[in-house]
Amino acid sequence: MAISGRIHSTESCATVDGPGIRFLVFMQGCLMRCLYCHNRDSWDTDAGREVTVAELMPELLSYRPFMQASGGGITVSGGEPLLQMPFVTELFEACQAEGLHTCLDTNGFVHHHDAALDRLLDSTDLVLLDLKHIRDEQHIPLTQVSNRFALALARYLAERGQAMWIRHVVVPGWSDDEADIDALGRFIASLGPAVEKVELLPYHNLGSHKWASFGQAYPLAGLAPPSAGRMARLQSIMARHHPCVVF
Asked: Which residues form the Radical SAM core domain (predicted)?
C-alpha cells in the first residue's frame, strides 16, 4: 500500500530554502506554537491535501530543468516534515533516484534518533535546522516546547557528518539578545565542519493575517522587524564563531 502524506502547499521556484531554484513542499502539521509563526494554517495535523509520492512526482519533475540548471532541487518544509517521516523518506529516495538534490527544513522537534530517522537522513543531502533560541527559559514561552530536542538533533547531525545550515529567526525582544547570539554561536561552533552556513533571518509579520482566520489575535501585533543595523551587529557577533554568516 502506497504511503500518503498530508501537504499544506507547494511552491515551484523557491530561492531562499536551500541552494539554487527549488521545488518546495510544505508539509501539514506542527507541534510547535511559535509566537511569530507565519504558517499558522499549517499546524493542524488533520488538514491539508493527502497525496502519495507517485502523485506528487510528475508535478515536481516538470521543474527539473530549472532545478538542475541552478544547482537546486527539492526542499521539504512545513509545518514540520519530521512528523511525516515515512512519506518524506519515500519522496527523498524517489528524488535522489532522479538525480535531484534533497533538503530537509526542520525545527528539530524529534524525540528519537532511530533507524527511521537514519533512513531519512541517508537520503537527505542538506538539513536546514531552525534553532529558535539557545536558552530553554526563553525557548519555551516562544514556542511552547523545550529546545533540548532541537539541540540534541543538531549534535546528532554533527556526529553523522550531515551537511547542515543553521537558521535562527531574529525576533526583537525575544531572540536578539547579544549574549544569547554569542552563546548560540559557541554552540554552533561546537558542532564542527558539518555546519556549512549560519542564516540569521529577520523576523517579519507577513503571516499575521492568518491568525485572524482562526479567531486568534496575532501574539506579536505591532512588533517591528529588526533594523539592518541591528542585523549587521548580530551577524558580527555570530561571525566570531562561524566564518559563513548571512542575513
From this structure: 16-241
